[in-house]
């Protein structure tokens, strides 16, 4: 006589009925036409087939990594679910065996749905009057996770996770179809990469790293059993909590099952159960606030990468889609920043973090637009508690200043308008005039005060009476003669200068600037040449880099490579349908090479360098630069009324740099003449240090035709 207890008479009928229902469900799944007929059956079959094909291609969300230029050192990561896809061959057999033992011991015998498990669950649930057991195989669980991860609407998420019989039946059918398309190895690999193990660990790579600081390939049976035990209830069995009692009991259950299935010997299982759970926790960084302390200044670069990314159509139709791709797409992003130049830029700033005046510098590579350095005298931090109050009287009584801590994009690439750039803007009317065919020798007897007939009687003056007299583009640019450049802008047209600046990457972010640049007003924007518009160091460095590159403007780009999760370069389709790599330079000729070379020849005058074809008129505004840099260099100083801000933009054939000093909180808080040398020194010293040891390159002289 059997020792198994007999079911009571009162329960016999429900149990038999439950078993019968389970059998009918399995039959209906295997032969769906029994349940539906006609066009409805065809539609159901087509929908299921379509969904199955989607699931065979579906991949879970994966962490994106931001690397230093060496392509090896991780600066930070971006993720909603911390996960790195791992091939089954890179996982220890221990974790494969443990997950089968914990979740689906008949995984290698069934074809997606386990009939015995279904019957067992139906019987148990009917007997308990509720849901005491599930019947989900690993394949069914993977289907549920894949449907959830590939959902694009809240409704699809709900359908994938809601506790209904219809969802369970749909999972069963899809699981059986999926096993016809994928091998058992493919399914368990995808499962282990999709499962949530708790503690922000999605997938086995994250779980191994977060709990044990190792790769899945190195997991011991004890560690594998601990992780496999988490899947059922990640919070309940979390071993990182103070009490490991439940986690240990669950681990030991998995070890027993591994022994029963022949994966471990009884003695090995007993020994493993006697071991404590030894954790070595890792907290993976996420986003720019988690940049390591030794790379603190790179936090601003990280933020710029995010802002740049959010503007790239290659990653989606809008900002939300693009940022979702960044956090879920598993990209490998390699920065273009040169560590040597970045270090030099940070070192050569002339104001400390405790100054209300922001002093920053950006360096761009001519011919590629790749950003090589971004440095500012601020600590990258979200903690503003110790910051003083803002210097802006209109900011309010409790508004904090931007120093010493901030994450504001003070160097550009964000939504801040920038700072008035003063006479650095004189480059734009000069370049427009040269591109229109006016020669470098174009002369004008510039008075101290010039009244413009075109600009409605506007009468600007020069900074000094010594600037008066006959000027050419060389001397006018070298001495920064306001009246000469207002006159020159009149000749070429303010609209031509403004539109050229736009082609060189400048954008108008204030209402005043947008209005002045509008078609109805741009021809009268005479003050444009004096730099009354706001600009960012990023924009100015990149605009001047185009001049260094013989008139070839390249969009600013902070990366040298972006790679998909399979290691291939990330591409996008141009308007003409051509596939291009996202990280490749995007360049276009804005002005002729001869015009750019002529502008460079004039721009050597402000720096104390000697132009190839003309004379600078005896003195210049930043004549120390050439001696500091120690190689051919061009550039332009810029200050605004009352020296509220001061700038210098300089370049060699290899690098272009723009530096400023200003109060971002209060543009009326003047930096003063005494600090106007700070941007000049920052640029000169950074170009010197950044190019140290590299061959000296010469600027190409302009042609006779454009010299005049």
Automatic annotation (TrEMBL):
The keyword Transferase is assigned to this record: yes
Keywords on record: Carboxypeptidase, Cell shape, Cell wall biogenesis/degradation, Glycosyltransferase, Hydrolase, Multifunctional enzyme, Peptidoglycan synthesis, Protease, Transferase
A molecular-function term among this protein's GO annotations: serine-type D-Ala-D-Ala carboxypeptidase activity
Entry-linked InterPro entries: Beta-lactam/transpept-like, Glyco_trans_51, Glycosyltr_51/Transpeptidase, Lysozyme-like_dom_sf, PBP_transglycosylase, PCN-bd_Tpept
Reaction catalysis annotation: [GlcNAc-(1->4)-Mur2Ac(oyl-L-Ala-gamma-D-Glu-L-Lys-D-Ala-D-Ala)](n)-di-trans,octa-cis-undecaprenyl diphosphate + beta-D-GlcNAc-(1->4)-Mur2Ac(oyl-L-Ala-gamma-D-Glu-L-Lys-D-Ala-D-Ala)-di-trans,octa-cis-undecaprenyl diphosphate = [GlcNAc-(1->4)-Mur2Ac(oyl-L-Ala-gamma-D-Glu-L-Lys-D-Ala-D-Ala)](n+1)-di-trans,octa-cis-undecaprenyl diphosphate + di-trans,octa-cis-undecaprenyl diphosphate + H(+); Preferential cleavage: (Ac)2-L-Lys-D-Ala-|-D-Ala. Also transpeptidation of peptidyl-alanyl moieties that are N-acyl substituents of D-alanine
Domain Penicillin-binding protein transpeptidase: 361-665
Annotated transmembrane regions: none
Domain Glycosyl transferase family: 74-258
GO BP term (any one): cell wall organization
Coiled-coil boundaries: none
Classification via Gene3D superfamilies: Biosynthetic peptidoglycan transglycosylase-like, DD-peptidase/beta-lactamase superfamily
Gene Ontology CC annotations of this record: outer membrane-bounded periplasmic space
Family: In the N-terminal section; belongs to the glycosyltransferase 51 family.
Protein name per UniProt: Penicillin-binding protein
Top-level taxonomy: Bacteria, Bacillati, Actinomycetota, Actinomycetes, Micromonosporales
């Amino acid at each position: 006589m059997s020792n198994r207890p007999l079911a009571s008479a009162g329960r016999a009928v429900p149990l038999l009925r439950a078993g019968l229902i389970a059998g009918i469900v399995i039959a209906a799944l295997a032969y769906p036409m029994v349940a539906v007929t006609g066009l409805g059956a065809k539609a159901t079959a087509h929908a299921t087939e379509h969904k199955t094909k989607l699931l065979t291609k579906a991949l879970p969300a994966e962490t994106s990594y931001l690397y230093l230029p060496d392509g090896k050192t991780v600066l930070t990561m971006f993720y909603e679910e911390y996960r790195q896809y791992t091939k089954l061959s890179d996982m220890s057999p221990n974790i494969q065996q443990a997950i089968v033992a914990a979740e689906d011991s008949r995984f290698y015998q069934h074809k997606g749905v386990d009939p015995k498990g279904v019957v067992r669950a139906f019987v148990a649930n009917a007997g308990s009057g509720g849901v005491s057991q599930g019947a989900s195989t690993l394949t069914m669980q993977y289907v549920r996770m894949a449907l959830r991860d590939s959902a694009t609407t809240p409704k699809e998420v709900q359908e994938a996770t809601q506790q209904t019989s219809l969802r369970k039946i749909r999972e069963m059918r899809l699981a059986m179809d999926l096993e016809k398309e994928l091998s058992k190895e493919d399914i368990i690999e995808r499962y282990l990469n999709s499962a949530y193990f708790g503690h922000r660990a999605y997938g086995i790579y994250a779980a191994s790293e977060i709990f044990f600081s190792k790769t899945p390939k190195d997991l011991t049976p004890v560690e594998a059993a601990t992780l496999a035990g988490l899947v059922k209830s990640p919070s309940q069995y979390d071993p990182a909590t103070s009490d490991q009692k439940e986690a240990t009991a669950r681990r030991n259950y998995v070890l027993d099952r591994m022994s029963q299935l022949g994966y471990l010997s009884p003695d090995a299982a007993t020994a493993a159960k006697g071991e404590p759970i030894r954790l070595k926790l890792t907290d993976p960084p996420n986003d720019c606030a988690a940049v390591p302390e030794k790379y603190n200044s790179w936090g601003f670069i990280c933020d710029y990468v995010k802002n740049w990314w959010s503007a790239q159509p290659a990653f989606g139709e809008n900002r939300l889609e693009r940022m979702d791709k960044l956090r879920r797409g598993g990209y490998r992003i390699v920065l273009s920043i040169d560590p040597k130049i970045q270090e030099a830029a940070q070192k050569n700033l002339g104001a400390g973090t405790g100054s209300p005046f922001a002093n920053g510098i950006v360096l761009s590579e001519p011919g590629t637009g790749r950003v090589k350095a971004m440095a500012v005298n601020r600590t990258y931090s979200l903690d503003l508690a110790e910051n003083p109050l803002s210097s802006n009287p209109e900011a309010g009584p409790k508004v904090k200043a931007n120093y010493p801590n901030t994450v504001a994009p003070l160097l550009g690439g964000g939504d801040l308008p920038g700072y008035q750039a003063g006479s650095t803007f004189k480059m734009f009317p000069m370049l427009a005039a040269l591109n229109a065919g006016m020669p470098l020798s174009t002369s004008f007897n510039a008075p101290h005060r010039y009244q413009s007939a075109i600009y409605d009687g506007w009468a600007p003056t020069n900074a000094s009476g010594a600037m008066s007299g006959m000027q050419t583009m060389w001397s006018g640019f070298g001495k920064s003669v306001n009246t000469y450049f207002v006159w020159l802008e009149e000749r070429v047209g303010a609209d031509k200068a403004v539109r050229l600046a736009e082609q060189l990457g400048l954008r108008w972010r204030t209402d005043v600037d947008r209005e002045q640049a509008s078609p109805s007003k741009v021809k009268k924007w005479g003050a444009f040449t004096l730099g009354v518009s706001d600009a960012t160091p990023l924009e100015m460095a990149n605009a001047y880099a185009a001049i260094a590159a013989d008139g070839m403007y390249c969009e600013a780009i902070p990366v040298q490579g972006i790679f998909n999760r399979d290691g291939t370069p990330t591409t996008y389709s141009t308007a003409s349908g051509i596939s291009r790599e996202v990280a490749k330079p995007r360049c276009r000729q804005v002005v002729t090479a001869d015009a750019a070379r002529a502008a460079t020849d004039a721009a050597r005058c402000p720096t104390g360098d000697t132009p190839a074809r003309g004379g600078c008129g005896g003195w210049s505004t930043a004549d120390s630069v050439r001696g500091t840099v120690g190689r051919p260099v061009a550039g332009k100083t810029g200050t605004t009324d009352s020296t509220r801000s001061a700038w210098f933009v300089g370049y060699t054939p290899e690098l272009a740099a723009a530096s400023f000093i200003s109060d971002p909180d209060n543009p009326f808080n003047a930096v003063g003449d005494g600090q106007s040398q700070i941007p000049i020194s920052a640029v000169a010293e950074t170009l010197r240090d950044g190019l140290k040891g590299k061959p000296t390159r010469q600027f190409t002289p302009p042609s006779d035709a454009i010299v005049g």
